[in-house]
Design a protein that fits this description.
123 residues, mainly beta, Cathepsin D, subunit A, domain 1, 2 helices
Length: 123
């Protein structure tokens, strides 16, 4: 089980450990975004600090319909206590947890400032 909190901006936030290919690691705070269909976003600074390996180029469609390119990297994330090898999209914004990382999990959010966020594997 992964637990987090709803912040003052009413964003559900969890802390995750991420690791690069040579063992560099750090903890990040990521906002759960059910409108994001990828796994995870990380900042370009995190890509450099963790020495992440480039995988490919992707395209995102923004709310206004415009498309923007982004780079995709390989990263290991500690997810529910287990290392999971995933793709992370580089974005110069707050890291996001997307629906692909939440696959096969239940998400519970108490939507109040300071509310509990719980991600639990489905049985």
């Amino acid at each position: 089980m992964i637990e987090g909190v709803v912040n003052a901006a009413y964003e559900p936030v969890v802390t995750l450990g991420v690791q690069g290919p040579s063992g560099q690691s750090q903890e990040i705070e990521a906002v759960i975004d059910t409108g994001f269909t990828g796994f995870l976003t990380v900042t370009p600074a995190m890509v450099a600090e963790l020495g992440l390996r480039y995988r490919s180029r992707g395209w995102a469609t923004l709310a206004d319909g415009s498309e923007v390119p982004f780079d995709v990297y390989d990263v290991t994330v500690l997810w529910d206590g287990q290392p999971v090898y995933i793709e992370a999209d580089a974005a110069d914004a707050t890291p996001l947890v997307g629906m692909r990382l939440l696959d096969r999990h239940n998400l519970h959010i108490e939507v109040v400032d300071g509310g509990r966020v719980v991600i639990q594997a489905r049985e």
